[in-house]
């Protein structure tokens, strides 16, 4: 299996990746094809696909924030079972991020991710692909060490229509053992940076941020 980076919308692998995204994600979570041009060309956004026998069978998008020394996993797609796509993507991504942190003169502090809570949202089928099942994904990520950041999370729709998306938790994977909480300044700064591209965020998102800013620390809880 190959780990191949996509940096151009004209890359034929991107067409395959976008079709795979449409198969597994809800419509409001998938950016329209042409709108990917700038993100793919952004050196700070890293989009990789897992290629097996010439076919895109998985993908992941993530980014590393030098000033925060943290990463964010935007998404991970496992296109089919039985190929070890999940471990392959996770291992390759971690090696890449650790190298980026080393170039920054640091050891990676951790990684954010949004994780569906299937106990609140049960209608996502994710293309019928069992490794993408929210219950399976949540347990796998828990075993990897991800923890839920303990506050009510609101996700602005990527349609930029001002709608609030619920049923997700903002989670964090600490790279060091024993990290039980995060400074809210890190969480707030990250959220403001990450969603700066969306001009039309729901009022509930701003309320969430204000509530976080009123605290110094927020606990990490088990998934």
How does this structure look, described?
This protein starts with a strand and ends with a strand. It contains 6 helices and 11 strands. The relative contact order is 0.13. The protein is globular, with a radius of gyration of 17 Å. Helix 3 links the parallel strand 4 and strand 5. It has a 9-stranded mixed beta sheet with strand order 1-2-3-4-5-9-6-11-10, sandwiched between helices. Strands 7-8 form a two-stranded antiparallel sheet. By secondary structure, the protein is an alpha+beta fold.
What attributes does this structure have?
alpha+beta, Aminopeptidase, globular, 9-stranded mixed sheet, 223 residues
Concise synopsis of the structure shown:
This protein has 223 residues and is α+β, with helices and mostly antiparallel strands. The protein is 31% helix and 27% strand. The protein has a single domain (2-221), classed as Gcn5-related N-acetyltransferase (GNAT) (Aminopeptidase), CATH 3.40.630.30.
């Amino acid at each position: 299996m190959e780990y191949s980076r996509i940096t151009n919308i004209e890359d034929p692998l991107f067409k395959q990746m976008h079709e795979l995204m449409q198969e597994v994600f809800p419509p409001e979570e998938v950016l329209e094809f042409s709108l990917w041009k700038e993100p793919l060309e952004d050196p700070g956004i890293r989009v990789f696909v897992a290629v097996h026998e010439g076919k895109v069978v998985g993908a992941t998008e993530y980014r590393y924030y030098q000033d925060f020394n943290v990463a964010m996993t935007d998404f991970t797609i496992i296109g089919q079972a039985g190929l070890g796509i999940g471990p392959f993507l996770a291992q390759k991504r971690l090696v890449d991020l650790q190298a980026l942190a080393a170039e920054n003169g640091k050891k990676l502090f951790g990684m954010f991710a949004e994780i569906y809570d299937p106990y609140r949202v049960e209608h996502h089928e994710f293309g019928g692909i069992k490794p993408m099942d929210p219950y399976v994904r949540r347990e796998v990520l828990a075993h990897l060490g991800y923890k839920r950041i303990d506050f009510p999370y609101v996700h602005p729709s990527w349609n930029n229509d001002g709608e609030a998306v619920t049923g997700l938790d903002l989670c964090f994977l600490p790279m060091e053992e024993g990290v039980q909480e995060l400074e809210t300044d890190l969480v707030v700064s990250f959220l403001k940076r990450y969603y700066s591209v969306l001009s039309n965020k729901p009022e509930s998102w701003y309320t969430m941020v204000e509530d976080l800013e009123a605290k110094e620390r927020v606990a990490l809880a088990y998934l």
